[in-house]
Here is the input.
Amino acid sequence: MLRLLNIELHKLKYNKSAKAISIVYFSLILFISLIVSIEFNFGGVKFRVADQGIFNFPFIWHFNSWVAAWLKIFFAVVIVSIVANEYSYRTLKQNLIDGLSKKEFLTSKFLTVLLFSAVSTIFLFVVSMILGLIFSDYKEIGIIFSDMQYILAYFLKLVCFFSFCMFLGIWVKRSAFALGFLGLWQVVEGIIAMIFQWIRVKTDVNLFETVYNFLPLNAMSDLLVEPFTRFGAVQSAANQLGESFDKDYDLSPLNVVIVLCWTALFIYWSYAILKKRDL
Amino acid sequence: MQPILTINNLTKRFGPITAVKDLSFTIEKGNVYGILGPNGSGKSTTLGIVLNVVNRTSGDFSWFDGTETTHDALKRVGAIIERPNFYPYMTAVQNLELVCKIKGVDNSKVNETLEVVGLLERKDSKFRTFSLGMKQRLAIASALLNEPEILILDEPTNGLDPQGIHQIRQIIKKIASQGTTILLASHLLDEVEKVCSHVVILRKGESLYTGSVDGMQASHGFMTLESKDNGALQRELEAMNAFTSIKQEGDRLVAYLNKPMDAGALNEHLFSKGIALSHLEKRKESLEELFLEITQNN
Here is the structure.
């Protein structure tokens, strides 16, 4: 295991673009944290985003996970390119000739996915903890460590998403096309959602629960429900308008199972393609 | 003899095309093998199968004594196929260190192998800055890192300039002289002839001949002769009953021997019959001539 990870890290260590994107990714998280911590002064009215309660424990775990999850697209580029490059440099062939098995090759890539996801998760945890300790109104240990499910959801979401990217890289063999397909798939799921909405309006058949929730990107996005409508200020504003948000913000076990199944499928399909394909 | 690679009834189909057809041969330790065949005869496919990058349709192969998995056995093999493939953003040394990690050997031989292929002074240059000849030499260096028991080279001089071809050939000769088993695939016959002791001849995926280069040259060679009176010379040669055929080629006669004969003895005999030769040369058929003969006859 360690040998495989070591091989993959060797490939990454000298890869300037992969390193640059990773640095941008982590800097962006820091940068966003910095912006919200700055006190703006609008003509005498002092305003600081961080003071609006978004960094209160335990809400911060949900909020930060959801925001940071958007940045995963940066790492997606890295994952897709480190996989697709093995085809375009023809180094996959050379790796196999040098004595790496196809299974080991895939394992080394998936270990990288796990490592990236784990590092991001730890980074998110540390940044959120610091922001929370500075700005949160509640600092009791019990409250700080409640609702940690969102951190787990974040990790699972990254693992599944990066596995999807890995599969696309292996399947499509070209970075640009693989990323294009990823975008296309997002559109496809959007179109499916529109069709299902139309069916629901016309026939009263609700396919969202039965089919739509099982689509990969939707399942990943359902892991972390948007946190804004949960935010106290938004809710009270909505109440005044006579609206109320009836949403379940918790991590649903079914959703976790769906996402884990997709992750397993992406790995299995990647292996099946690798095994079947002549190089 | 200790087998290094045994191939039994190997077949590979790409859709309707049969690239390798029921191929069997054994590579034994210590010999230098050439796989000969025109382009598209299945050389690279065969090597791809035994190197774990192409899936076989049927048949089987085993490395060494057949007890290890293919990918473990490949750690004891050095191979270069077709084009040198490395990470362009890494330097020569970084690429070789990666190969060491994959093969599970330490980095101690990196500088040594770079020295063997003459790339030591360029060791910290990025792979993408290398010329084709340098890339090919780096590939050989990478194949030597694990002190392989067999070195597989597929068209190692393809696309190189004469100087590059010469360098690669020198390296191969040097490695062969150290007793490493070598399997060299090529369509360039003189390349194979210069270094190989055994050949496998392929055409359209089928093996036409497997054995030693000497065994291929079953005939006793031929003489090329010239004198002032070629008519008298031809009559005299025919009277000797030592030749299967005698042909006129330009100003010279080419006579194929049917028994061993020394050029000196022939010269002496002809002189005693009053024929003075202005040209006499004894030669064996070149691999090229044999190869054309075999591929045409089958």
Notes: Chain B touches chain A at residues 14, 48, 51-55, 69-72, 74-75, 77, 79, 81, 83, 85-91, 94, 97-99, 101-104, 142 (CB under 8 Å). Chain B has two domains: 3-216, 222-297. Chain B is about 35% helix and 30% strand.
